TrEMBL record:
Highest taxon listed in the record's lineage: Eukaryota
Domain G-protein coupled receptors family 1 profile: 48-293
Keywords: Membrane, Transmembrane, Transmembrane helix
Regions annotated as coiled coil: none
Protein name: G-protein coupled receptors family 1 profile domain-containing protein
Subcellular location per the Swiss-Prot or TrEMBL entry: Membrane
One GO cellular component term: membrane
Keyword Transcription regulation set for record: no
Residue stretches spanning the membrane: 36-55, 67-88, 94-118, 139-161, 181-201, 227-252, 272-296
Amino acid sequence: MNFTGFTESASVRSATASGHGSMKTDPPEIYFIEKAGIVPTALVGLLGNLLALVVWMAETRYNATTFLLKCLCVWDNVFLLTFVIAILSSNVAYPYAVIFVLGVSQMLSVHITLSATVTRLLAVTRPLHVRDILTPRRVYVIHAGVFVWCTALESINTVALVKTQLPLRLRWKIFVSRQTLGFILPIVALLIINVCLLIFLRKLRAVSRASLQRRPSSAAVSADRRLNIAVFCISVCTFIAYPVGILFQVLADGIYGGMIYFPLYCNRRCTLIVDSVFYLMQTLNSSVNIIFYLVFSTQFRNLLLRRVERVRGLRRSLSTSSSFTSSKKTGVSSV
């Protein structure tokens, strides 16, 4: 079963397309994008996010940003794993359940990226009070609220998909509302917060250069700055992966359902291929975060080295204990 072709049922054009049986045949380009692009990228991303989660779990001190990055690893892996299973399986038993999980995990990925960027902005603008503001209880409550919000949006959209007797215009309005509230508005907020973060970082750099007394550079300050860069790169990938694809889906669904008029018409073959390309971009967005952690985050590299040293120490202790046991057995047998 071609799943990227099937996920067009997340929009209103699926109701019309499925009635004519057009979902059974898909362009060969989609098969190539799925098998040569999405599946390998998702498998590599699963391993990378799992490794990143293991490394971040080595951090014993509480930090709001690292907690959110752990959550981001989890939900990105939920999205990638569900997507791979749906593509590789010949038949999806519960297609709407799969679409529901994909939608929730995608929305949570965007919202958690937004939350992590907010924590970095507070760390820059309120460095002395950020720990009092972002207490563990508040961050946990915020994450739970975001989860409920995304689940509610996707539940309404899924109910609209299941209820095929609903008018086409109403289903399209529900789909547009879900895309607007779940993706477009958070991405706009993400853009604004990143701009504010860059402005404050530039001001801080200008003040430090202009001041007569140089501020002592510590490892903690340097690690904090590099973490800002890593979160900023994750936000840039979100900007690249989601907005254009979401706007294309909304526009294509409106044209396909006859709700809006646009002079340029894209047939089903073109629509499916473009959708597959955007799904590939979203898969890349959920897979490349570990690269930013390794390149920019000193804290992540230190935690990774700590994990490696712990594994090496465990291997040495196991080898020592095994050699001691074998030598003891040899001594006993010689007696």
